[in-house]
User: Fold this.
Amino acid sequence: MSTGLVWDELYMWHDTGTSAWVIPAGLTVQPLAHIESAEGKRRIKNLVEVSGLLEHLTLLKPRAATQEEILRAHTREYVDRIKRESDALGGDAGDLTPFGHGSYEIALLSAGGCITAVDAVLDGKVDNAYALVRPPGHHAERDSGKGFCIFANVSIAVHHARQVRGLKRVAVVDWDVHHGNGTEHAFYSDSSVLTISIHQDNNFPPASGAITDTGAGAGEGYNINIPLPAGSGVGAYVATFEQVVVPALRNFEPELILIASGLDASAMDPLASMMMTSDGYRQLTRVMLDAAAEICGGRLIACHEGGYSPAYVPYCGLAIIEELAGVRTGVEDPLLGLLAMMGGQSLQPHQQAVIEAAAKLAAGLKARAAR
Ligand code: 9RB
Ligand code: ZN
Assistant:
């Protein structure tokens, strides 16, 4: 196996300023740091390096996305505004998504990094890839930023795979704990892109990601939301992938699979209330690798999204990238024993009820494919 790692130090220089995590600082809110900081991502890269895993990876240097590529997913007015504000002192992309001077270029490099990963995999330069990009992208809408996302990295990579590389069907599996609203909206009426989001029920964005939102027009049936109850652990996630995600992928037969890889479903994350562990992410990666091998020649790309426990995300990231590369460094997750023994890790009946409802949507794709 050969696995690509997209990384650029400039990703870490995207400046989200001082808030108190997600709350704007003010007279009664003492400034802390914005929760979407470089720290967690830099610590993933550092652990990949210190563990020795980096020596087994192919480092992929990202390029900036072009205007044409960005405009496939965003309005010119929005892109021009981000550039103008970034050229000055920075601004807010929308909905408390602050950015600093130069973040426009970094956001172009983030979207471009996902395109770089797509090209490397489709050209056979690597078997699969992890794009450790920043800022994230899955909440970004056509004309606005949202939830720390400026440009829609994954959507832009999908457009590239479809329009430039000529793929007929692409699937996106979003395992970030928040709903992938931007990706959902980008392809809501499009039957050539299957979008699946597994998220904590009604966490962020508010009132987004209902199981009843299944697509519209020609895209009806090609959006699957799996809103898992708060408290879901490894058992619920593995069951979701085995009972919903893999059957949906089998029925859809994509030529390429992208994972929107947020690590914020971990038990240590402050922006959600799920119970995933590094070993849980390793298992999900295994399931996705097997599905990709069976369905699309192993073509699998993970694009980084959220994850806000700087102490814990490195172990989740390491587990995923180890599994992608088929390498075990032997570095142990120091929290795994504790988290694995916590109550609630096994699949619960109220979680299975949601999974069963979503499994019906996955099965529905078979009838659509036959038409
Ligand atoms: C608050 C607001 C947020 C914003 C983003 C996330 C998660 C992002 C992510 C969670 C909560 C707004 C506190 C807007 O990781 N996506 O993958 N909260 N945002 N207004 N207020 C008062
Ligand atoms: Zn998230």
Observations:
- The first strand starts at residue 3 and ends at 6.
- The two ends are 36 Å apart (CA to CA).
